[in-house]
């Protein structure tokens, strides 16, 4: 007879879970003492000295908040700080959005973009009367799969990235959306697709919208990089604005981690937009009441600091203009790194074509390196990237790009 266990949660009941691959890479990088190691794994902006960058406008907003004699630390409302959520809606939907003017929008402050995706997934799992299945791009942000699975919404994929062209598999994507059961949930990256850096053109977005409308699908936009991708806020929200203008009912998960550099402050927003109808405002009000109940049961009240920073900037014309300049600083540095990397690889005569480096956009690039090559470059050159060959362009700078390009050249020739 075996001795009694001291726990009800044996290894058979609760197996050891694998470490999160991304944060495992970061841990390994930090522990590595190699002098010329390079981190191109984590999705966080770094300056030309590979250091985190606190946006100058964030420092100014922080100073304003610290000197406000009326500042307190009381609970925020369940739906969040109204001065934040209203401006967040204008930012992603457009200040002149017909949906905002017609009171067809309800917005809830969330724990960054992750919390917004989760709140949306939870709401749809509970209330969406269509096909309880979400279609995500292949590949997509890894956390999408876990979030929807956790709320019992099955996940399917539509083709997105072409390994042959290192661009968009547009025909495959359209075919899959056409073949998906009517009234399915379709998750779309608003801009700077994670992890590929490949975005549809506006004309392609229009074709995608036509298919989604024909099949009566439900669009779920994830917007983590507005303004950070191109440096142009309007360009980066063009797809969302187009869908709203076409009268879609949809939801948007919005993060301020990247474009404000507020990674750890977890400032985000979830927006529900209903289609134009006589009772649209009443629909938005009912949805808001249910979102409040879901929020109350999970976090009660959203955190204050990050939202206060964003609100301070978005509600001040001068600070808003400075923020746009900060966005251009970040996006233009990343674009410059793309140009430099491509030029150096072509100068080295590295086997393959490298034009996709500059054709992709945003923080990430799908290099085309295989898993074997990604593991080899980590082992030999101490270059840390995800095993699917995705790199964060923000991890490159004028001090390490020569080393990085030569490491890529070597591994491509050998593996």
TrEMBL record:
Keywords: Aminotransferase, Pyridoxal phosphate, Transferase
Enzyme class: transferase
Pfam families named in the record: Aminotran_1_2
UniProt miscellaneous comment: In eukaryotes there are cytoplasmic, mitochondrial and chloroplastic isozymes.
GO biological process, one term: aspartate biosynthetic process
Protein known as: Aspartate aminotransferase
Cofactor names: pyridoxal 5'-phosphate
InterPro entries according to UniProt: Aminotransferase_I/II_large (IPR004839), Asp_trans (IPR000796), NHTrfase_class1_PyrdxlP-BS (IPR004838), PyrdxlP-dep_Trfase (IPR015424), PyrdxlP-dep_Trfase_major (IPR015421), PyrdxlP-dep_Trfase_small (IPR015422)
Catalytic activity entry: L-aspartate + 2-oxoglutarate = oxaloacetate + L-glutamate
Quaternary structure note: Homodimer.
